[in-house]
Structure formats: C-alpha cells, structure tokens
Amino acid sequence: MNNFSIAIHGGAGTILKSAMTQELQAQFEDALQNALDAGYTLLERGASSLDAVEAAVAVLENFPLFNAGKGSVFNHLGKHEMDASIMEGQTLAAGAVSGISNVKNPIKLARVVMEKSEHVMLFGKGAEEFAKHHEIAFEPDDYFYNEMRYKQWQEAVEEGRVMLDHSERKFGTVGAVALDQHGNLAAATSTGGMTNKKFGRVGDTPIIGAGTYANNHTCAVSCTGHGELFIRTVVGHDISCLMEYKGLSLQEACDVLVHDKLVKIGGEGGLIAVDNYGNVAMLFNSEGMYRGCRTSEGGMEVKIYKE
After folding, report:
1. Which of the residues 41, 173, 191, 212 is marked catalytic?
2. What's the predicted TM-score (pTM) here?
C-alpha cells in the first residue's frame, strides 16, 4: 500500500491562547478532528484524494465558527457571498465558484463545476443557477445567520472598514489537501471572504494557482490569509514551481513563500500542503493557524497556536 495523508486548516491570524476559553478551544479542536477523520477515513478505504478533501472541507463549512459555508461573514449589504475551489493533480482539472449565496456547501458546487461543466470558474447568479440545475443543496438566509458574525458586521459598518473575519485579524478560510493510495493529489479551499466587503470583492480562495493548487508531479496546496497578497504572489503555483524547477523540498518551498516572499510585501497568513510522497507542511507567519494532519504512517496532530 502506498503512503497517503491529509492536512486541513480552518484559518490563520492573530489567534492567542490568552483570548480563548477552554470551551471554545475544545469546540475548534473537535471540529478540526471531525474534518480530519472524515477525509482520512475515505483515504483509508481507498477513496480518491478528491473525495477526501471535499468531505473534509464540507465538515468545516458546516461548523459555524469557521468563516466558510454556515459560518460565513456578512458583506456590506448584510448578505453572504461565498467562494470555493477544488483541484486534482492528475489531470490538473479544477472547479471554482465565487460570489455565491445560499449554497449550503460551496465546495460541492466547485466540484460539480469541475466535473459537469466546460469551465473552471462560475460567478454569482449564474453559478447559483448552475447549482440548482445540478440539484446542489441550498439553505435560507437564517441558516447562515450567526450573532457573532452579525455584531462583527455592525462594528465594521459603523467604523467604515473592511475586516479580515475578526477584529483581531483572523483569516477564516478553510481548506484541505490530500494524497491518496493511488498517488493522486488534490486540494480544496472555501471561504466567506471579508466582513463588510464591497463591490464584489474576490480573494485568493477561488483563484487556481493562488489559494488552491494541485499537481501530481509536486504538491497540493490550500492557503489562508490576506487574499490580495496571496494572489499577487501566486502562492500555490509558486510552491509547485520551486519544487519542480529548483528541486526544493515541500518544506523548503513553503518556507520561501510564507516566511520570505509574502513577508516582503506584508502578506500575513499561512498554508497547508502535501507532496507526492505524503510529506505534510503546515506553515504560517501569523500568531496561529487552526490546523491538523494525519498520515498512513501513524502521525496525527491538531493544533491552533504557535509551537
């Protein structure tokens, strides 16, 4: 049996133990563990990495404390606009959606775009129409309502600013990467974007090569952070290129992006990645990142704070 592994994240940013209650920390850790288990169980049964990352991200989308799916933040108009993408490394097939509302699990729609359309990305009302055509589950506005998110939005509106999920700078994107027993890589990412975002703003999450990337020759990557800067540095694809063209290891390539290239332009956040040998990297340049990984060699961890 070939090695297989999975890693997940629930966002990065200023995540301090001093600001976290034990009860809240336990909730986050349980959610991360549930997502990890959902994906790993599929890999263990011989399922594809694509199935594993979709399942893991869907669990995170259903958890209201992460900024994706059910827990998505409010935009300037008091609505929810969600983005998601998914990619598999064997054929470089990818699917993405952006600016969608009321779709229960945006990651499921992204996969349908990849497999059932001729396109890579669908946006807004058109993407929602496509979702209905393919019987993707929708939920009413009150499903996505969260009192904490509502207060964040009200605060942002009063101060006339855009917020990166929380006032304490937390980037709440969720994601997963995996290598399956067949040697195939996949990555998936989903987000509700920025609180009080305006003008149809789109971050790195649905941009293939920036927030999400997978290539069987190198690695699979899912990012979380200040999206504009992750787009400008094309983080996911650049990590793959450093491995393919310069011969860097997964850890070395991720380190260049997270601790050098992003830092030089003020880019805060992190990423998870897995290479075609099953090695896992979970790097961030912020105070913390909700993260976890599990490998067929017996390694498993769920963490929130810096070491």
Report:
1. 173
2. 0.94
